[in-house]
Amino acid sequence: MRWRLLTPVVVTAAIMAVTTFSHALGASDSPTLPRISPIGLAQKVGKSQARAFSGNVRLSVDIGLPRLPKLGTDGGADPLRLLSGDHLIRVATDETDGEKRERVALLDTLSEYDVVRDDTDLWLWDSTRQVARHGSVDALTEALLAFASPAELARTFTGPAAIETALFDTAYSAHQTTRVAGRDCYVLQITPQVQGTTIGSVRVAVDAGTSMPLSVAVYPTGSSKAAIRAEFESLSYSVDPAELRFTPPPRANVVEEATPDLPANPVRGAGKSWTAAVAIGGVDPDKVIAGLGTDSGRQKSAPEGAAAVLAALAGTPGTPLQSYLRMMMASGEKTPVGLVWSSRLVSLVFTPDQRLYAAFATPDALKATVAADEASSKAGDDAKAVGSHS
User: Fold this and answer.
1) What are the CA-CA distances from residue 385 to residues 276, 281, 286 (Å)?
2) Closest CA to 286 of 247, 328, 224, 257
3) Ramachandran region, residue 122 (left: φ > 0; alpha: ψ -120 to 50; beta: rest)
4) What is the C-alpha separation between 99 and 119, in angstroms, rounded?
5) What is the spatial distance between Cα 115 and Cα 125, in angstroms, rounded to a whole number?
6) What is the band of 298 on the pLDDT scale with cuts at 50, 70, 90?
7) DSSP state of 258
């Protein structure tokens, strides 16, 4: 299952999906292409015929989070550092036979962190610590992997659900062209026309031949500097099958990961249009932070739920990561709907009943979305209670 929501601010989502719209749209980079309407181009994005591709993606993230520093010998490729800074990511995907196989590798100077998926089988490989974690692809993992390339990130803003909800709240333009990774591309510019969103505009470079997005840049309101940028530096519409296979090296420490105890549908949407939010259940920030611990601490008492997901992804040792997250939580604002944290692009709300809401929205707009969602949930519960007694 994929969540094509307007605001997929899943941690590491992020995570895991942003870089540089570095090509200036000058004459030398502006190929002549057949004219296409902006809405027609947006609709083509979700209909790419590319079933297999591989390439390197240059990533840049600056949403206002403090950088997670490298910690002496504990440095190296670390997925949590994708929350800020510049990165190089290798991506490969093949679903030509109906089964999804993909590899996402965060490349550092002397190390790498790989996520390798073979249909429902999942490996996480940390070369710095020589640890291979093995598990299965669950619903939350599927959501995270969905945003591992510019193509997936772009569909968030151009897919059918986004067009349907934002059609009357958005200005579209498709007058420019460019070249990305040697491919001729249309440039789709998307500009929200509503109050409360932190997004000023989104630019997507779409391969004219395959309709696959090759570059994405997200600009905060009032800023000419992109907060999220993603662009293929190299691209091939083929994949070496060996790149999608993983076998732990002989001296690797192999850890079998139990599937986290998560709700059947841990991620859902709340609100509408550009201020819509992603809601994730079962997130208690204090328990998440305490559950990370150190490696030895994890062995004594395994983390659960969201803490288990974060612990499996974390290359950063437990204690420094705990300190980092506590610092973030300490800067949050206590409000009637819960603890509110915000940056120049993303706002978060941690509710008392352990729900996390995240959106490309101002704190006030997100608080209004949370309050409306809670009122709707309460009304639904009341209706069920009345029905059960009638």
Assistant:
1) 28, 22, 32
2) 328
3) beta
4) 5
5) 7
6) very low
7) P
DSSP letter (8 states) at residue 360: S
Which residue matches tokens 């993983």?
246
Instruction: Tell me the pLDDT tens digit for each residue of 301-332.
Output: 445 555 555 555 555 556 666 777 788 778 88
- Phi-psi group of 153: left, alpha or beta (phi > 0 → left; psi -120 to 50 → alpha; rest → beta): alpha
What tokens appear for 276 in the block? 């819509």
Q: How far apart are CA 226 and CA 330, in angstroms?
A: 27
Here the tokens at position 64 are 């206002």
Q: Nearest to residue 11, comparing CAs of 265, 307, 235, 233?
A: 307
Of 128-132, 211-215, 287-291, least confident by mean pLDDT is 287-291
Q: Give per-residue pLDDT as tens, 172-192.
A: 888 899 999 999 999 999 898
pLDDT at 14: 31
Length of the chain: 390
Amino acid symbol at 258: A
Partners of residue 179 on adjacent β-strands = 184
Residues 202, 205, 206, 209: what is their CA dihedral angle, to the nearest 10 degrees? 170
C-alpha count within 13 angstroms, C-beta hemisphere, residue 310: 26
Q: From CA 316, how far away is CA 77, in angstroms rounded?
A: 9
Question: Dihedral, CA atoms, 163, 119, 266, 274, nearest 10 degrees?
Answer: -20
SS3 313: helix
Weakest mean pLDDT among 73-82, 195-204, 207-216, 288-297? 288-297
Alpha helix segments (H runs only) across the chain? 13-16, 38-45, 139-145, 150-158, 160-166, 285-292, 295-300, 305-313, 318-330, 363-389
Contact 379, 367 (CB under 8 A): no
Q: Read off the amino acid at residue 193.
A: Q
pTM of the model: 0.79
